[in-house]
Write a structure and sequence with these properties.
68 residues; elongated; single chain; mainly alpha
Amino acid sequence: MSLKMFHIIFISLSVLMSILFAGWCWNAYFYEQSFFYMAGGIISLLIASGLIFYGKWFLKKYKGLSNI
């Protein structure tokens, strides 16, 4: 597996984990009404969106790089 492919997989899994954590935070917020759960969900979604933009930038920049 090339370093480029590993990077793409790692960013994709990071986005997925961040979205799942945001969902968990929102679910916990509706049960306990804690500010920290709400803040954690919002921050996690911001991180996920930042990772998506970074992934798009990475794919555009290294489009011609070989996967070997």
